[in-house]
Known about the structure:
single chain; four-stranded antiparallel beta sheet
Amino acid sequence: MSEAILAVEELRKHFTTTTGFPRRRTVTIRAVEDLSFTIAKGEAFGLVGESGCGKSTAARALLRLIEPDAGSVRWRGEDVLAARGAVLKALRRRMQIVFQDPYSSLDPRQTIGAALVEPMRVHGLATGAEARRRAAALLEEVGLPPAALDRYPHEFSGGQRQRIGIARALTLEPELIVADEPVSALDVSVQAQVLLLLRELRQRRGLSFLFVSHDLAVVRWFCDRVAVMYLGRIVEEGVAAQVLEAPLHPYARMLREASPVPDPARRGALPRIIGEIPSAANPPPGCAFHPRCPHAIPACAITRPPLRAFGPGRRVACLRAEELMETTP
Length: 329
């Protein structure tokens, strides 16, 4: 694997809110806890997990769309979290995001041309006719006609809007695209078109991706490596095919079993993960998954397992990972 262009270490993000009636109390939501991973040039790295596990918060925090509370984010060795002013502006050219909802990520009062030209103007890349020419070329690259420049978001379908969002992310010629559930709001047939577009852009432009999704099939098809998150922490990380075919962590294994596959032999009720995900405001002690884990032992309620190496490029946070490895199908 080539050298990492993005290195995230011990990233943490908590939110403080008030709850309760009539007596109000302050609670801390531990959205992301000590997240660490790297992304190499040209690599697609996936973050998967249940809704509310902290995937999108982590993606936004490393881009500083929300400010993290602790940790380190380095882009080619440069400290992203310490950057200010012109340095931060230059770093943001290198990392762009495609949002989940194509209906709310575009300004309804702004034409598509204005949405694409504005980043070029702000970063001093192009203005006037040259910026408009570049915007038209970007639309063609994502499969839309140049005539779309003078139209508004409400005139497009969800899939077309997501293509526009991808074009907007490409205006500054970034090296890394953070794709935050980019196809979850789209019809299945449109999902396939957008995923094929993203793969073509990755190959043509040499892009790296942080791909956030809850769809294991999509992640396996698109990503090289994957990290499975649970309650703000990574519980397993490794090569996508290996982790999703033969997971070692009980949560990753149950997540795979609960994912539908196009196999007639598996018709009937799908297995499900027992219980509900705990509150991030009051996570369980020890291993956060132990209240739902069929393999839990008393030590799991006391000791938080660290991410340990299990072969090249694979890490698992489970006290019983060695035992479970022997029963991996």
